[in-house]
Specification:
single chain; alpha/beta; 7-stranded mixed β-sheet; 7 strands
Length: 245
């Protein structure tokens, strides 16, 4: 019975989300040559609608522990699923999210993503791609926009805590801005790569701001511990031990 109810809720959720995604995408694309602010508006409405149907269709409560100021710093989020990716334009007015270069090749969506101001990450592009990424990130910071990085590089099942990707250290050092780590346990109720979602509580836990200029190992360790703060302690210890062997 529990699964049946969750399945029905999930079907309704996906229908509504698909309809709103289509409307928002069309609106964002139509507004591309007309107004940057209109594109931002459509993307933000899409994210807020997603939050709404998560709450009232899926039965998910979203709790935020701490404050996420909308300022030009580097946010590093735990990445357990699509949930926190979709949430970004609702959490901030106009975030600059680091995204895989491959996503920008998607017809129409890629153009809208570039116009919106996402930061492309080409891991195989060498020094030229790295400079382009840093220039885009610095331009976003200059406009007062927060940067958002999923430093694990991919979606991680709840309870797992792999090391941060090596790119984090370079971005942290070269941008020279404070880091605000954010833990999230979305994988429990909003599991990755699963159509059926579950009722429950999804929590964001914002950690203490990490200043710029720390040694690499200290910065990585502090961010790693902070974004995994909502993991079970025994899983965290196991992941740490595995990474050190």
């Amino acid at each position: 019975m529990r699964y049946t109810i969750a399945l029905i809720r999930s079907i309704l959720f996906w229908i509504l989300f698909f309809i709103m995604s289509s409307i928002s995408s069309i609106g964002a694309v139509i507004s591309l040559p007309v107004s940057h602010h209109a594109t931002i508006f459509f993307v933000r409405i899409w994210a807020l609608f997603h939050r709404l149907i998560c709450r009232f269709v899926l039965g998910q409560m979203i709790v935020v522990e701490g404050a996420m100021p909308d300022i030009p710093v580097l946010y590093v989020f735990k990445h357990e699923g699509a949930f926190e990716t979709i949430e970004q334009p609702g959490l901030f007015k106009h975030p600059a999210v680091f995204a895989k270069e491959q996503l920008f090749s998607i017809p129409v969506w890629g153009q809208a993503a570039r116009f919106y101001g996402l930061v492309p990450v080409d891991r195989d592009g060498g020094g030229k791609a790295m400079r382009a990424m840093l220039n885009a990130a610095k331009a976003a910071l200059a406009k007062g926009r927060p940067l958002v990085l999923f430093a694990e590089g991919t979606r991680i099942p709840h309870g797992m805590a792999p090391p941060l990707r090596s790119g984090f250290a370079g971005i942290y050092r070269l941008l020279g801005v404070p880091v605000i780590p954010v833990a999230v346990n979305s994988g429990i109720a909003y599991p990755p790569r699963r159509w059926v979602k579950w009722p429950g509580t999804i929590t964001y836990r914002i950690a203490e701001t990490i200043p710029a200029g720390l040694p690499r190992e200290e910065a990585e360790d502090r961010v790693w511990r902070a974004i995994n703060a909502l993991n079970p302690p025994e899983a965290l210890l196991a992941s740490k031990a595995a990474s050190e062997t």
